Give the backbone structure.
Amino acid sequence: MSIPEDAIKNEMRIFALESIVCQHFATLYQTMPREFFDAVQKQAIEGAQKQTFAGADAAHSDLFSAELQAGLERLYGMIRHHLDSVQTRQSR
């Protein structure tokens, strides 16, 4: 199976943006107590679980909500990775 070059470029652009945003958020969160990040992450995930989408039937709304939750978990995981990396470097 061949993936179109434009699709690869678009995915990499999105990933680059996600990476930059997560690095910047990690920079902000590292100046705060870790509990603050944990609480914000929990609130975002819980909000995604409750999110509904106007105009979508219940099944699609559940699917959209689950995809939103998965995306948030991935991005918060990237932020957590950056925070953990900084903490590991600082503890050496």
Observations:
- The mean pLDDT is 93.
- The CA atoms of residues 1 and 61 lie 31 Å apart.
